[in-house]
Structure formats: structure tokens, C-alpha cells
């Protein structure tokens, strides 16, 4: 036990109330256990048939989702080792925007297998070196598995985009991926700049409106603001209005008149608009919109190609933007202002989502986020690998072969690493309510006979060639997910001592841990 | 064994509550069924009302599903989803809130035995989604369009829809009376249908029949100063000036300070003040307006000034009412009295002040643009009028939706029975498990007619069997048969004008299915302890933690992607 009767050794150096855990049993195995528990939570959400979780965070907000990144974010994981996994998944989420679940689940599986090795008597450092070799080999093999001819895609071709995006979106919203994918693809293609590498995820906006159903959702070229306005005319100009006091009546009139003379028909303001100013805007038949968010205003500028002016004066014709139409419409009891630009060249697209509850809308938004992020990733690197666990099985097989060629104790670790890949098909089958043993064996059989593209068809519960099913994953997603998972697992294994200083005074509630959660 | 000796691993924060697995799913379903049971008895014309007494001591009597769900203050996370769909139905179509909760509850109830038997929820979800899209197609197919009819015909058709909605409400006794009122109001506001252009004013006293519709604007007489009595109270074709300034002395908002060296100068300042206000008043009079309304105060000086010149004025008119008057009379609200041109003045055929109950009302009728209507509700008790207002709101929404989408289906459970039959028939063509699931979906749809019977005190089994027989007829002539609430038998709902807009049913089925699928897809609940700032009473336990707790809000959310 860590807490001896008599203080000696490290205990003498530290303040009363600290925690000190060391050695295999106490530190390494315990860490592994914590990580296993975490991955057990997220694992049932993996894949299209994954289940949702209800997470109620400390602010009492309800999340219903199967997006691993959201789940671990809101879980407020406390255990230091498990936190490493959380960080790995966050890194994945930031790098690619998808595949967070794969990272956590795979790292959990790696650690679970490492535990067996440790119990067998291997030293963690041997496992680490084995795992490192294995991941290098995996990356090599992964590159060989890339589908030929997929390096070049036309990111403006909707079919090609959808085919790559489908797997990512389907894993969040199974059964609705067709509708969602075409929405996302439409929106992304619209805003894709000339150089696709500069694609900015911020340019695809999502507006959530309660009511209706998913099939009522649509893509709007331009922006949708959740606010009302006065009047309805065309053309947009931008100016920030200050709040004027009433005594400056004539002055205000002069200013507004100047704006009106310049040909502008709409004023968009970031700050409040005085009653007096509004009065004159009405008089000169100007439509007035208020956008209080600074970022929203900037996006609006991008949409219309106008320049935000700090001072109200006669604007240059160059500073004026243009949209085809601005209308105020009522959707599901909410009045929204829609600024539309029908012809190309506009840089913001908005996906109007409809759904019957807030939780559904939030989850749909996350799925769209993933889709958009996938698009971004595919703009950078469009290579794809077979999906539906085909890649994993192939990797498992080849890494296993590789392990036989290794001499030394590394062999065990590499073999276990290979076994860990089995987790993906097994979980997919399990979540879909299929017999995992049967699926696994037939997958291995197919792959051994050279059909490296055979994966699970979850609809029918049989193994099929991926090229028929058209399920592809982005190479880059897989690459980073596996790499982060292996790194995280090695980091956890490397720890052999945990020293926790006594939490600073005050109540028992663990403030330091909560603080760490911030990153 | 090593793990046995060690202290338990704390993965999550202390106080975090997690539950997982099938048991969790079943308990979620139970919670939702319980919630649905609360509103169950309010369905239909014979539905009962609920009296809700909240912690502030306010009493609400209602049978509007959304209102009840909102007031129930549900904390169970799964059951909250039902509240959400009721709200969504309310904002999307306005009526059918009880229906949507009931349907969702019933879908889940039907799913429960399958879950307990070990069916994977995803299989159920997939079948439910298929059934939902099949049902929606069928609704669209069955819907009858009222497009292209003459105005008179359309009016009577819309009134039918409103009657169906109102019959299930407290004011059901006077449904024809109110239905025509609602239809007239909605038609009055035309296609630019801003809901806030229909005002509902409540005046206690009298009875329901005394309620009336003003084709224009009506609002309660505002607070008035001396001199008001001398003002004329009736005009024909007056010009109306709408202001957003106060006509009062001491109108300076900012603190001003003036230093005087000579006391005689004081008089000039006072004079200047009087001049400003007289100047303003003069300009109002010169504009030719006979009625002056202002959002801000009109003082006693101005009141008397106007009275002397035979002008009616009212100050402190609420923003809403002023907007409505502006829309109705074609005027615009002015923030300055300078440069008042004829364009900004509104007009109407008749303005008068009328006694309603013990209140005096300012009424503008025969407005040129006519985009407004006001319903003045009368009734015995406050709660009664409140409920009547909610019911009218529902009816107004229904008529608006019916005008927009202009397709209707047969009510009285007829459409639900027909969908049920259609799905059962379709299910027979499917091999595999999903046949069972679609059948259970079809069975769940029957809850509407069943509950209608139950609430009316009929033998549900008997009526349902008769309905099933009618709907199963090969010729399809029985497709419109629903529950006859008057005799306890069955009747052709369509021929008896029990109609509802198709969009109500479409949205209800859609939302209920989405909610049911969402609840079925959850297998784990994790509840984090509330952060200290969220719970007010945590002060006792957290002395030092308080200050830190304040930094919590936004932290959790700030971590969202991007």
C-alpha cells in the first residue's frame, strides 16, 4: 500500500495530505484501468449504429449525442491518465474534426492489451518500443492501402465530395446521411475558394430553427440572421451607427440623407441605432438591420463584399456591398432575415437546420460540423482508404505478419498492437447487434485470400467488398487517429509514479482538476 | 486482486451520476410514458382541463398541451425532450401539441417490449423512420386542397378548420361564433401575416358572446390628464399622427446645469421651455391631425391644448398597439414633430371611444390598409379569459397554416386510423423483424381515436373495431371515418366538416417520431454535478470555492469546437 504507518522516503518530503502512487500495480495498471473505463463509455458510440449518450453538464445543459469529442468534453474527466486520452481526442478533433471516437477507443484497446503484456511480465519500456515500431509500420502499410487514383479529386464535384464525406456523417446521423451530406456538400462547394487549401470552415454557417423536420432543411447562399428588420428592399451597404441624442436632429438627418443619396438601400449596424436615426431611415426608405455580434458583422461583410465603416458619412461606391435580395421570412414561428446572393462568388453559405427538439438540432449541427471539417481535410489531402473496418482488418493482418519477423520481446507488443485493430470491426458488429465472432472470422478469411477491401455491411450484416458499398474513409483522418492513439497509449505506459500534492486549502471540491479541464 | 486492495479509481468528478445499458433505456421510456399520461386526458372535444398551481401561486387552467408541458417544470432529461417537441409543434403550427406528446409517448410504449426482449434499438429506429416517411407520404396523398376556391367558399372551409381546433377547448360551446371571428381576423391581416398584427384584448365581465372583432385596432384608454373630458371622442375620417416623443414640460433626459447671475434671466429660461413645448404642439396641430397618439407621456398642458382645438390625444400607448395602429392606418411613427408631411399621417374611417365592460376603449375601424385586427374577449373569470386567449391563439395559428398550405385532412382520428391501416398493410409486404416494428408503429397511431373515445366516455374497443372495419373496406370509401363525439359511434369526419390542416398532422407525426427515435438511441446518461454558481444554496458548503465557482459559466461551453 502507498500509505505506510511511518513516514519515510518521499513521504517525509511532502506535505501532509498528498497522494503518492508508484510501481506497476499502483500506477501503471491503475492508469490503464482508468483509460479502459473511459474508452468503455465512448466505445458504444462508435460507428453508424452507435448509441447516443445523454450528458448533463455542470450547467445543467442536456446533450444527446454520439459525438465522442462532445461527450468527453462534457464528461469532465478527472483522472490524470484518462485525461491524456481526452487530450489526444481533442488534438484529433482540432486537426481533422472527426475520428475522435476512434482515437479514444483505439488507445483504450492498446492499453488493455498492454495490461495483459505487463501481467505476462514484460516491462512497459519494451511495450513502448514495440508499439512505436508497430505504429511506424502501420503508417507505412496505411499508405499502401490508399485507393489508387484518389489523390486527385475535384473538390467542386458534388458526387466525389459526398462519397468521401458520407462515412463521417453517417457515423453521427445514421439513416439521414444522404440528406445531410448533400446539404453539407452543397454549402461547402459554394464557399470553396479558388485555392481549395484555403477553405475556411467558418464560412459554412448553421442556423437552427425549431420545428419541422430534417427534410425541411435547406442551404441558403448567403446569410440567415435570426432577427427581424424593418421594410424589405435590395442592396446592402454597411455602416456602423452611433447612438445620437435628439438635439442633433438636423445633423442626423443630414447624415442619413448622405447615406441614402449614395444609393444604399440597407443599413447594417453593429451598434444600437437611435430612435431618431431610425426615424430618418424610415423617411428615406432605408432598411435597417442590426447585427450585434462583431464576427457576424464581419461575415456579413464577406457575404456582400462591402466594407464596414466606423463613421457615418457618405460612403464610397466601393464600400457598398451587394446582395440579390434581403427578405424577412417567418420560419417555424421565428422571424429571420435572409440575405441571398444567387450568383456565385459569395463566400458564406448557411445551412438552415430544422428539427423538433433542441437536442436533435444540436446533434445535427455537430454532424454538419464533422462533415464540413471532413471537407476541409479532403481539400488538403484527398486520399481515401476503404472504410467499414476493411482497413483495420488489413492492418491487423499485415502488422501481425510483420511481428513474426521481429526478434526480441518487441514481437509480443507488436502482435498485441495488431490485435488491437480488431477492436474496430468487433465494436462495429457489436453495436449493430451482429455476431462479432462470425463477422471477424469471415473478415479474416476474406483478407487472407487477398480481398483487402472487404468490410462489414451493417445493413445486411454480412461481409462485402467496400467498393460496392462505397464506404470510404479519409486517409488523413485514419492516419492521425491511429497516430494520436498510439502516442497517448505510450505516454500513459511511460508513467510509473503519480504524485498528487495536497489540493490547496478550502473545500474538498477538486478545483485544480476543474482548472485543468479548461484547455 | 490488486485492484481490490486499491482505492476505487475516480475517473469522473465526485458526485457524477452515470447509468448505462438497457435498464437506462427502459427507465427513460417509462419517464416519457408517465409524462404523456399527464396530458393524455386533455385530448379532444371531451378532454378535461388541468389546473396548475405553480410555486409563485399563479393558477392556470388549460388544456393546451404546450402550456401544460411548459408549466410542469419537468427535470427528467429524457422527458424534457417531450416538452421540446410540444414547444416545437406550438411554434411551427400552433395546435396539436397534445397529439404530438401523446404520439411520442405511445411510440415509446410500443417499443418497450421489444427493447426488453433484446432487440437492438437501432433496428427499431430504422423501422420507425421508414414508417414515418411512409405515413407522411400517405397524409400528403390523402390531403384535400382548398386552393382555388372563391373567397366566400374559402372562408367557410377555413372556419371548419378553426371549429375543429376550438371544439377541443374551453370555449368549444361557442365554437362557430369564435371560428368565424378568427377567420375574419386572419383574412383581414392578409398574406403578410405577422401574428402580432392580431391583437387580443381581454376585458373581464359580460359573457363570451359579448366578445367582438374590430377590423382595425382597439386598445384600452390610456392614462389621461385633466382636459381629456373636453376632447371629442368620435371622428369620421380623421388624420392620425403617431409620435414617439413626450409632449410634456421637463422633457430633458440629461442632467443639465445652468448658472444664472441675474434673477431676471430666469424668466427667459422658463419662457424658452414653454416656447419649446408650444412650438411642438403647434406643429402637431398644423399637421391637420385630429388624433394624436404617442408612445410617451402627453402631459396635462398638451391635453388641454389639444382639447381646445378639438383634437383627441392619448399618451403612453404601448409599443405593440402603436405599431398596430401604424400598420392599420398607413401612418408612420414619428420621432420628431419637425417636417411632418401628409405621407406620415394615417387615417381611418371611424375613430371612437367606446365603453366595454367597465373599461373605455379607443377603437379605430375601417382602416385603409387593413392589415390588422383586434379581438376583444369578454368572459367571467380571469383564468377563463386567459384560457380563451390561448385557444384563440391556437385557432388563429391553424387558420394561418391552413391558408398557407391549403390542404386539409379528416379529423376525429380518421386520418390516424387510415394511416394505421395503410402501415399494417404495408408491413405485410416486408420480410424480417421490421414487419413487427412497423406494425407496432401502426398500432401506436391508433392511440388518437382511442383516447378520443376514452375521454368522451365511450367504449374505445368497440368504436375502434367499427372504425377498423370501415377503414378496411376494399373500396376505400371508409377512409374518412372517425370517432363521432356526439353519438358515441363512428361517422364520416370529412362529410361532417371535422377538418384539420394537413400540416398539423405532418408536423406532429414527424416530431413525435424524431423524439421517439432520439430517446431510443440513448443508452447512457451521465450527469455532472452542477457547478457551484449554478446552485444558489451552495454557499453553506463552499466558503473558498465560491469565488472560483463564479468563473465556471461559459467554461464548459467555450470548449466547443472551432
UniProtKB/TrEMBL annotation, chain B:
UniProt feature, compositional bias: Gly residues: 544-556
Location relative to the cell: Cytoplasm
GO-annotated molecular function: ATP binding; ATP hydrolysis activity; ATP-dependent protein folding chaperone; unfolded protein binding
Domain of life, source organism: Eukaryota
Keywords attached to this entry: ATP-binding, Chaperone, Cytoplasm, Nucleotide-binding
Alphabetical list of Pfam families matching this protein: Cpn60_TCP1 (PF00118)
Region (Disordered): 529-562
Main localization, broad class: cytoplasm
Gene Ontology cellular component terms for the protein in this record: chaperonin-containing T-complex
Keyword Zinc-finger: no
PROSITE patterns: TCP1_1, TCP1_2, TCP1_3
Database matches in InterPro entries: Chap_CCT_eta, Chaperone_TCP-1, Chaperonin_TCP-1_CS, Cpn60/GroEL/TCP-1, GroEL-like_apical_dom_sf, GROEL-like_equatorial_sf, TCP-1-like_intermed_sf, TCP-1_chaperonin
Composition bias, Low complexity: 531-543
Subunit note: Heterooligomeric complex that forms two stacked rings.
Functional summary from the UniProt entry: Molecular chaperone; assists the folding of proteins upon ATP hydrolysis. Known to play a role, in vitro, in the folding of actin and tubulin.
Family: Belongs to the TCP-1 chaperonin family.
Protein name listed in UniProt: T-complex protein 1 subunit eta
Organism: Carya illinoinensis
Amino acid at each position: 500500500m502507498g500509505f505506510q504507518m511511518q513516514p519515510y522516503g518521499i513521504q517525509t518530503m511532502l506535505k501532509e495530505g498528498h497522494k503518492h502512487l508508484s510501481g506497476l500495480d499502483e500506477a501503471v495498471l491503475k492508469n490503464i484501468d482508468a483509460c479502459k473505463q473511459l474508452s468503455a463509455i465512448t466505445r458504444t458510440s462508435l460507428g453508424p449504429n452507435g448509441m447516443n449518450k445523454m450528458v448533463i453538464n455542470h450547467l445543467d445543459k442536456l446533450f444527446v449525442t454520439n459525438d465522442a469529442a462532445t461527450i468527453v468534453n462534457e464528461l469532465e474527466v478527472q483522472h490524470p491518465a484518462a485525461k491524456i486520452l481526452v487530450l489526444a481526442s481533442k488534438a484529433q478533433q482540432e486537426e481533422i474534426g472527426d475520428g475522435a471516437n476512434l482515437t479514444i477507443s483505439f488507445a483504450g484497446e492498446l492499453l488493455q492489451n498492454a495490461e495483459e503484456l505487463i501481467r505476462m511480465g514484460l516491462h512497459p519500456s519494451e511495450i513502448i518500443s514495440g508499439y512505436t515500431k508497430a505504429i511506424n509500420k502501420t503508417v507505412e502499410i496505411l499508405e499502401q492501402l490508399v485507393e489508387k487514383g484518389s489523390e486527385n479529386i475535384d473538390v467542386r464535384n458534388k458526387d466525389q465530395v459526398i462519397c468521401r464525406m458520407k462515412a463521417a456523417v453517417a457515423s453521427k446521423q445514421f439513416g439521414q446521411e444522404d440528406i445531410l451530406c448533400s446539404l453539407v456538400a452543397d454549402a461547402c462547394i459554394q464557399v470553396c475558394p479558388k485555392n481549395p487549401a484555403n477553405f475556411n470552415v467558418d464560412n459554412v454557417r448553421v442556423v437552427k430553427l425549431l420545428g419541422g423536420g430534417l427534410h425541411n432543411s435547406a442551404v441558403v447562399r448567403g446569410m440567415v440572421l435570426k432577427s427581424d428588420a424593418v421594410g424589405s428592399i435590395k442592396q446592402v451597404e454597411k455602416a456602423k451607427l452611433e447612438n445620437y441624442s435628439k438635439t442633433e436632429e438636423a445633423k442626423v438627418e443630414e447624415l442619413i440623407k448622405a447615406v441614402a443619396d449614395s444609393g444604399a438601400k440597407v443599413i447594417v449596424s453593429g451598434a444600437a441605432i437611435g430612435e431618431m436615426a431610425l426615424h430618418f431611415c424610415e423617411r428615406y426608405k432605408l432598411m435597417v438591420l442590426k447585427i450585434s455580434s462583431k464576427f457576424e458583422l464581419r461575415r456579413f461583410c464577406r457575404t456582400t463584399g462591402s466594407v464596414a465603416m466606423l463613421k457615418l458619412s457618405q460612403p464610397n461606391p466601393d464600400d457598398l456591398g451587394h446582395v440579390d435580395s434581403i427578405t424577412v421570412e417567418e420560419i417555424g414561428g421565428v422571424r429571420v432575415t435572409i440575405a441571398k446572393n444567387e450568383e456565385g462568388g459569395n463566400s458564406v453559405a448557411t445551412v438552415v437546420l430544422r428539427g423538433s427538439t433542441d437536442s436533435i438540432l444540436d446533434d445535427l449541427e455537430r454532424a454538419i460540423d464533422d462533415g464540413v471539417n471532413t471537407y476541409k481535410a479532403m481539400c488538403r489531402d484527398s486520399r481515401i482508404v476503404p472504410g467499414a473496418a476493411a482497413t483495420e482488418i488489413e492492418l491487423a493482418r499485415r502488422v501481425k505478419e510483420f511481428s513474426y519477423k521481429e526478434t526480441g520481446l518487441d514481437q509480443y507488443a507488436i502482435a498485441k498492437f495488431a490485435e488491437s485493430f480488431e477492436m474496430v470491426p468487433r465494436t462495429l458488429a457489436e453495436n449493430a447487434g451482429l455476431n462479432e465472432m462470425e463477422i471477424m472470422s469471415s473478415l479474416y478469411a476474406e483478407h487472407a485470400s487477398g480481398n483487402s477491401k472487404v468490410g462489414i455491411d451493417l445493413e445486411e450484416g454480412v461481409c462485402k467488398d467496400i467498393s460496392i458499398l462505397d464506404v470510404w474513409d479519409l486517409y488523413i483522418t485514419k492516419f492521425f487517429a491511429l497516430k494520436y492513439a498510439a502516442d497517448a497509449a505510450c505516454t500513459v505506459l511511460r508513467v510509473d509514479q503519480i504524485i498528487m500534492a495536497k489540493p490547496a486549502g478550502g473545500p474538498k471540491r477538486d478545483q485544480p482538476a476543474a482548472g485543468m479541464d479548461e484547455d | 486482486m490488486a485492484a481490490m486492495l486499491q482505492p476505487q479509481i475516480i475517473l469522473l468528478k465526485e458526485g457524477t451520476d452515470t447509468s448505462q445499458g438497457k435498464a437506462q433505456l427502459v427507465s427513460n421510456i417509462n419517464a416519457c410514458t408517465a409524462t404523456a399520461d399527464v396530458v393524455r386526458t386533455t385530448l379532444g372535444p371531451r378532454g378535461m382541463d388541468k389546473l396548475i398551481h405553480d410555486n409563485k401561486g399563479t393558477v392556470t387552467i388549460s388544456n393546451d398541451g404546450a402550456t401544460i408541458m411548459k408549466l410542469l417544470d419537468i427535470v427528467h432529461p429524457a422527458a424534457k425532450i417531450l416538452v421540446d417537441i410540444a414547444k416545437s409543434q406550438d411554434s411551427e403550427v400552433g395546435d396539436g401539441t397534445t397529439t404530438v406528446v401523446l404520439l411520442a409517448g405511445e411510440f415509446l410504449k410500443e417499443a418497450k417490449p421489444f427493447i426488453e426482449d433484446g432487440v437492438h434499438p437501432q433496428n427499431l429506429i430504422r423501422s420507425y423512420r421508414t414508417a414515418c416517411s411512409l405515413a407522411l407520404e400517405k397524409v400528403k396523398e390523402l390531403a384535400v386542397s382548398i386552393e382555388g376556391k372563391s373567397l366566400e367558399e374559402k372562408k367557410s372551409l377555413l372556419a371548419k378548420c378553426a371549429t375543429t381546433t376550438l371544439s377541443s377547448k374551453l370555449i368549444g360551446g361557442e365554437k362557430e361564433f369564435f371560428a368565424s371571428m378568427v377567420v375574419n381576423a386572419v383574412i383581414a391581416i392578409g398574406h403578410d401575416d405577422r401574428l402580432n398584427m392580431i391583437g387580443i384584448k381581454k376585458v373581464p365581465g359580460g359573457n363570451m358572446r359579448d366578445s367582438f372583432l374590430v377590423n382595425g385596432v382597439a386598445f384600452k384608454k390610456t392614462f389621461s390628464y385633466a382636459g381629456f373630458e373636453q376632447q371629442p371622442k368620435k371622428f369620421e375620417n380623421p388624420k392620425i399622427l403617431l409620435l414617439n416623443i413626450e409632449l410634456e414640460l421637463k422633457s430633458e433626459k440629461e442632467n443639465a446645469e445652468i448658472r444664472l447671475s441675474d434673477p431676471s434671466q430666469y424668466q427667459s429660461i422658463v419662457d424658452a421651455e414653454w416656447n419649446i413645448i408650444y412650438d411642438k404642439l403647434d406643429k402637431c396641430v398644423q399637421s391637420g391631425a385630429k388624433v394624436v397618439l404617442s408612445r410617451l407621456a402627453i402631459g396635462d398642458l398638451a391635453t388641454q391644448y389639444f382639447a381646445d382645438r378639438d383634437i383627441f390625444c392619448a399618451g403612453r400607448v404601448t409599443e405593440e398597439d402603436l405599431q398596430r395602429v401604424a400598420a392599420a392606418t398607413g401612418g408612420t411613427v414619428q420621432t420628431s414633430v419637425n417636417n411632418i408631411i401628409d405621407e406620415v399621417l394615417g387615417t381611418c374611417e371611424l375613430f371612437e371611444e367606446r365603453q366595454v365592460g367597465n373599461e373605455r376603449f379607443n377603437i379605430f375601424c375601417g382602416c385603409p390598409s387593413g392589415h390588422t385586427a383586434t379581438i376583444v374577449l369578454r368572459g367571467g373569470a380571469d383564468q377563463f379569459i386567459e384560457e380563451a386567449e390561448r385557444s384563440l391563439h391556437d385557432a388563429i395559428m391553424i387558420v394561418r397554416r391552413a391558408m398557407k398550405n391549403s390542404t386539409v385532412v379528416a379529423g376525429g382520428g380518421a386520418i390516424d386510423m387510415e394511416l394505421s391501416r395503410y402501415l399494417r398493410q404495408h408491413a405485410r409486404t416486408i420480410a424480417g423483424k421490421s414487419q413487427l416494428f412497423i406494425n407496432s408503429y401502426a398500432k401506436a397511431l391508433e392511440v388518437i381515436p382511442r383516447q378520443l373515445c376514452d375521454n368522451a366516455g365511450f367504449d374505445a374497443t368497440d368504436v375502434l373495431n367499427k372504425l377498423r372495419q370501415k377503414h378496411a373496406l376494399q373500396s376505400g370509401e371508409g377512409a374518412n371515418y372517425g370517432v363521432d363525439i356526439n353519438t358515441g359511434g363512428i361517422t364520416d369526419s370529412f362529410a361532417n366538416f371535422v377538418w384539420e390542416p394537413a400540416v398539423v398532422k405532418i408536423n406532429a407525426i414527424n416530431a413525435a417520431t424524431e423524439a421517439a427515435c432520439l430517446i431510443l438511441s440513448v443508452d447512457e446518461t451521465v450527469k455532472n454535478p452542477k457547478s457551484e454558481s449554478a446552485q444558489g444554496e451552495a454557499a453553506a458548503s463552499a466558503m473558498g470555492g465560491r469565488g472560483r465557482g463564479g468563473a465556471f459559466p461559459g467554461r464548459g461551453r467555450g470548449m466547443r469546437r472551432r
